[in-house]
Amino acid sequence: MAKRRMIDGEFWEEPKVAKMSDSKRLFTIGCINEADDEGRLIAEPEYLRAIIWKYHNRRLGWVKKIRDEVCSELKGFQLYEVEGVFYIQLKNWERYQILRKDRIKESRFPPLDAKCQTNVSQLADKCRHKISKDKLREVKISKDIGDTKTVAVSKKIDFSKKQEKDYNARDLVAYFGKKFEEVIGWEYHANFGKDGKIMKDLVAHYKPEGVLDLIEEFFDMAKENEWVADKLEIGVFKSMVNKLLIRMKKEKK
């Protein structure tokens, strides 16, 4: 259950907070609200989503990205790991919270110490594959385009050796996965039965070269619009084709 916590007026005056997206500010306030009497809380994505976005269909990867970025940007938020579980310690907790000493409950979470501190950038490196600037990311795809299972797109394909006009549906699913990984930082899980069919239909209308351009435009839009970034799926991509075509036409003028 959420606790009664104080949000100091200085919070809104902090430049880093003022420049944050609404989602990051909500995350920050949610952590303050949820922290125990010693300023600690569980920082596992599943837990954070259940507490802060319980009525929204947020992806765990998106929640983790928000968590890591906030903890990297705000000095008062320290992300750390103890025995495989992530926690957040809110520093200077007593400065901003007025707690009666006779009612303070001892934290049930392990404290932040020199043995368990983990740098946020190191955490990010552990869970994402770095993408070479000189070589396009190679991704894994299922051999069976009719496979209905949702699987990570991670089979190696060297796109630099393929002609755009020769891309098939599986190649396009893989390319979508490559762009997803570049923008989000982890693998795209594709439903090859559904996603492959969508790509086949799009190729029939716009040819492989046109679909590739649409994919590029889709991810450019995602970088600019938070609501798009939270819905990076091939099904959503298809539903936005008309908007993408209009956007591309305007950019050419």
Q: What's the arrangement of strands in the largest beta sheet?
A: 1-3-2
Order of helices and strands: HHHEHHEEHHEHEHHHH
Coarse morphology: elongated
Q: Give the distance, in angstroms, between the N- and C-terminal Cα atoms.
A: 54 Å
In percent, how much strand structure appears in the residues? 5-15%
Q: Which residues sit in consecutive blocks of at least 5 with pLDDT less than 50?
A: 121-150
Q: For the record, what CATH class of the largest domain applies? A: Mainly Alpha
> What structural class is derived from the secondary structure elements?
mainly alpha
Q: How many domains, as an integer?
A: 2
CATH architecture annotation name of the largest domain: Orthogonal Bundle
Helix content bin: 40-55%
Radius of gyration: 22 Å
Count of β-strands: 5
Largest sheet, if any?
A: 3 strands, antiparallel
Helix segment tally = 12
- Which fold does the CATH topology of the largest domain refer to? Arc Repressor Mutant, subunit A
Average pLDDT figure:
76
